[in-house]
TrEMBL record:
<keyword id="KW-1278">Translocase</keyword>
<feature type="domain" description="ABC transporter">
    <location>
        <begin position="7"/>
        <end position="233"/>
    </location>
</feature>
<dbReference type="InterPro" id="IPR017871">
    <property type="entry name" value="ABC_transporter-like_CS"/>
</dbReference>
<dbReference type="Pfam" id="PF00005">
    <property type="entry name" value="ABC_tran"/>
</dbReference>
<keyword id="KW-0547">Nucleotide-binding</keyword>
<dbReference type="InterPro" id="IPR050763">
    <property type="entry name" value="ABC_transporter_ATP-binding"/>
</dbReference>
<protein>
    <submittedName>
        <fullName>ABC transporter ATP-binding protein</fullName>
    </submittedName>
</protein>
<keyword id="KW-0472">Membrane</keyword>
<dbReference type="InterPro" id="IPR027417">
    <property type="entry name" value="P-loop_NTPase"/>
</dbReference>
<dbReference type="InterPro" id="IPR003439">
    <property type="entry name" value="ABC_transporter-like_ATP-bd"/>
</dbReference>
<dbReference type="GO" id="GO:0016887">
    <property type="term" value="F:ATP hydrolysis activity"/>
</dbReference>
<keyword id="KW-0813">Transport</keyword>
<dbReference type="GO" id="GO:0005886">
    <property type="term" value="C:plasma membrane"/>
</dbReference>
<keyword id="KW-0067">ATP-binding</keyword>
<keyword id="KW-1003">Cell membrane</keyword>
<keyword id="KW-0046">Antibiotic resistance</keyword>
<dbReference type="InterPro" id="IPR003593">
    <property type="entry name" value="AAA+_ATPase"/>
</dbReference>
Length: 302
């Protein structure tokens, strides 16, 4: 085990009554890493995070942050971490500024730092707006600012972009990248595979309380033997012939397009070239979402 790791988790187990939430979870997160925890609803992501954060006690196994046990709760560790939870727990009826100043007071950090964080997440112009009147994206950014006000080294973000429109998500991605680029370790859970692929250095895919795979997104994509999709014009080539020629591929067709999904696209491309069927050809490489679906063997339920 790497003693300098930001997080080291060994064989975590947790049951709730007859439900096994965690069934032996182990992983490490290096300092400065952007790490993603991915998995379907009920996979055990939140339970894992809560144990690592010291909010929940495991039945067995151990979680360390910066080499120190998360349980029992340790005030020194608490000061070094920032937590943004799925449903931001704001103090009611406060303005955005009052909210973050309250957090600054709790952590005994100077008030000026609260104003700086509000500016850093682009909310200075909403300082006097009450938290319940913020948009979803603004509320998420305020929650992140509150989690960062005491300048933690390790930041936990539980589905920070859930429910945001595409533009707000992209804006938040820039903020998350900045947080990591400033030297902080970031642990993210998300149901958006494109988000994990764009942001995370490494991801762990968890299901039924176990880690199925852990590594850089590109490695997982390669390992999962996910398919490449070659999309040709239906008028130029016959789907039946392609099926006979490439039995390992999945060939689907509609009125205009034929989609050949294959783990080995090179011979498919050669065949289409030989048949003069390259016009308007589209090739789509495998994504983390493909790898995820291959690994978890089910539709993604966002
Ligand atoms: N406090 C609790 N009491 C009883 N069962 C619980 C409790 N918390 C979680 N569970 C169960 O443990 C399992 C793992 O839940 P967990 O919240 O960790 O999953 P998750 O991956 O975070 O899911 P989601 O993506 O929906 O947030 C689920 O079957 C869930 O129903």
């Amino acid at each position: 085990m790497d003693a300098s790791a930001a997080i080291a988790v060994t064989d975590l187990r947790k049951t709730y009554g007859t439900t096994t939430a965690l069934d032996g979870v182990s992983f490490e997160v290096g300092q400065g890493e952007f790490f993603g925890l991915l998995g379907p609803n009920g996979a055990g992501k939140t339970t894992t995070l809560e144990i690592v954060e010291g909010l929940r006690r495991p039945d067995s196994g151990q979680a360390l942050m910066f080499g120190a046990p998360s349980w029992p709760p340790n005030p020194d560790l608490m000061r070094r971490i920032g937590v943004q939870s799925q449903t931001p727990a704001f103090f009611e009826r406060l303005t955005a500024a009052e909210q973050i100043h309250a957090f600054a007071k709790l952590y005994r950090v100077p008030a000026v730092r609260a104003d700086e964080m509000l500016a850093a997440v682009g909310l200075s112009d909403k300082a006097r707006t009450r938290v319940e009147q913020l948009s979803g994206g603004q509320a998420q950014r305020l929650a992140i600012a509150c989690a960062l006000v005491h300048d933690p080294q390790l930041v936990f973000l539980d589905e920070p972009t859930a429910g945001l429109d595409p533009q707000a998500r992209r804006n938040l991605w820039d903020l998350l990248r900045d947080i990591n680029a400033a030297g902080r370790t970031v642990v993210l859970t998300t149901h958006y595979m494109d988000e994990a692929e764009a942001l995370c250095h490494r991801v762990a895919i968890i299901d039924h309380g176990r880690i199925l795979e852990c590594g850089p997104p590109e490695t997982l994509i390669q390992k999962a033997d996910a398919v490449t999709r070659v999309i040709a014009q239906a008028a130029l080539v016959d789907a039946g012939e392609l099926r006979r020629r490439f039995p390992e591929a999945t060939v689907t067709e509609d009125d205009t397009r034929i989609v050949i999904a294959s783990p080995d696209p090179a011979p498919v491309l050669a065949e289409l070239a030989a048949r003069g069927a390259l016009r308007d050809l589209v090739v789509k490489g495998a994504t983390l979402e493909d790898a995820y679906l291959t690994l978890t063997g089910r539709e993604y339920r966002a």
